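Title: Comparing notes on inverse folding

I've been comparing how different people in this forum approach sequence design from structure. To keep things fair, I'm posting one structure and asking everyone to reply with a full sequence. Here's the target:
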């Protein structure tokens, strides 16, 4: 297998390294620290909608990739909702 194909295969399309700080903290966790959980919940909801809406339409992004990203944001929203319930 050539290096490009091997790199593509090991590349995490959902949680790539460029969304992590130098100490390994996920960008979305930093967003919670800076903006609060309610705004990040809304961000997740809107991103899930965006990726589902554009699925299969953006050049270079497959429908499957977009749907996987939409699902990731739906799952993150559920995780945040259970971890930080509305009081």
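Reply #1:
Here's my take.
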């Amino acid at each position: 297998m050539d290096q490009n194909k091997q790199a593509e295969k090991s590349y995490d399309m959902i949680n790539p390294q460029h969304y992590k700080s130098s100490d390994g903290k996920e960008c979305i966790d930093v967003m919670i620290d800076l903006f609060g959980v309610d705004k990040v919940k809304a961000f997740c909801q809107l991103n899930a909608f965006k990726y589902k809406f554009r699925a299969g339409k953006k050049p270079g992004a497959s429908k499957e990739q977009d749907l996987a990203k939409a699902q990731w944001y739906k799952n993150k929203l559920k995780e945040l909702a259970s971890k930080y319930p509305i009081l």
